[in-house]
Amino acid sequence: MGKAKAPRRLADNEARAVLRTIRISPQKLNLVAALIRGKKVSSALADLEFSRKRISGTVKKTLESAIANAENNHGLDVDALVVAEASVGKSITMKRFHARGRGRASRIERPFAHLTIVVREKQEEAA
């Protein structure tokens, strides 16, 4: 019996990759995600390759995964792909304590983030 297969959440010309629990604050990750939003994937990969941010290598891996999903799972043309969405969300926060002077302690929060990249095949308009 079982349940019917859930309908696909994305359009037929879209593919996505999700990376969860990345050890960086969402605010810092969003700076790198904003770098690639709306760009062609070739341009976005080049930007991430030469970015000096620590997390750019991880974002590049996730973008390459989304491209591979588009090509292998959905049969999309890699040359026509555009980064449609690059969304960042909050994840858990590790709480730690740091010893301070006079026998006190202060709290240190180590945030984690989620990253979702959606690529879309864009048709070239004939002019």
Please provide a written account of the structure.
- The protein is an alpha+beta fold and 127 residues long.
- It has a single domain (14-121), classed as Ribosomal Protein L22, Chain A.
- It is 29% helix and 35% strand.
- β2 and β3 (105-121) form a beta hairpin.
- α2 (41-49) runs antiparallel to α3 (56-72).
- The longest helix is centred in the middle third of the chain and has 17 residues, at 56-72.
Write a concise synopsis of the structure shown:
The chain is of the alpha+beta class.
Task: Please state how the strands of the largest beta sheet are arranged side by side.
Answer: 1-3-2
CATH class: Alpha Beta
What's the total number of strands? 3
Low-confidence stretches: none
Q: Give the strand content.
A: 35-45%
Helix content: 25-40%
GO biological process, one term: translation
Keywords: Ribonucleoprotein, Ribosomal protein, RNA-binding, rRNA-binding
InterPro entries: Ribosomal_uL22, Ribosomal_uL22_bac/chlpt-type, Ribosomal_uL22_bac/org-type, Ribosomal_uL22_CS, Ribosomal_uL22_sf
Pfam families: Ribosomal_L22 (PF00237)
